[in-house]
TrEMBL record:
Residues 2-67 form the ABC1 atypical kinase-like domain. Keywords: Kinase, Transferase. This is AarF domain-containing protein kinase. InterPro entries: ABC1_dom. Residues 69-96 are annotated as: Disordered. It comes from Nannochloropsis gaditana. The lineage of its organism: Eukaryota, Sar, Stramenopiles, Ochrophyta, Eustigmatophyceae. Pfam families: ABC1. One of its GO terms (molecular function) is kinase activity.
Length: 96
């Protein structure tokens, strides 16, 4: 995916040199290329889940289910969810 995004940015850079109307699209593409890498890194997503749980369940006191990331996976692009006890009810993994 990273190679594809780099190639797309190069294409947009070339097109923007030919036509300055595409400079905004080049900027958008560069930003998206940076963000998509984070979105596909499940370690970042697991950290985000923990922050959501902390803010919504612990601090907010809401009785909601927040998926719990699976710990101990190798690499940044693997992950999953397990059930977690929240507010008196068991959260079961959802089928995707």
């Amino acid at each position: 995916m990273n190679n594809d995004m780099q190639a797309a940015v190069k294409i947009f850079r070339f097109v923007a040199r030919l036509n300055s109307d595409f400079e905004l699209l080049l900027h958008i593409m560069k930003s998206w290329a940076e963000e998509i890498e984070k979105e596909l890194d499940f370690r970042v997503e697991a950290s985000n889940l923990e922050r959501v749980r902390e803010n919504v369940v612990v601090r907010g006191g809401l009785d909601v289910v927040v998926p719990q990331p699976v710990e101990g996976r190798e690499g940044g692009r693997e992950g999953g969810r397990e059930g977690q006890q929240v507010g008196g009810s068991l959260a079961r993994p959802q089928e995707c």
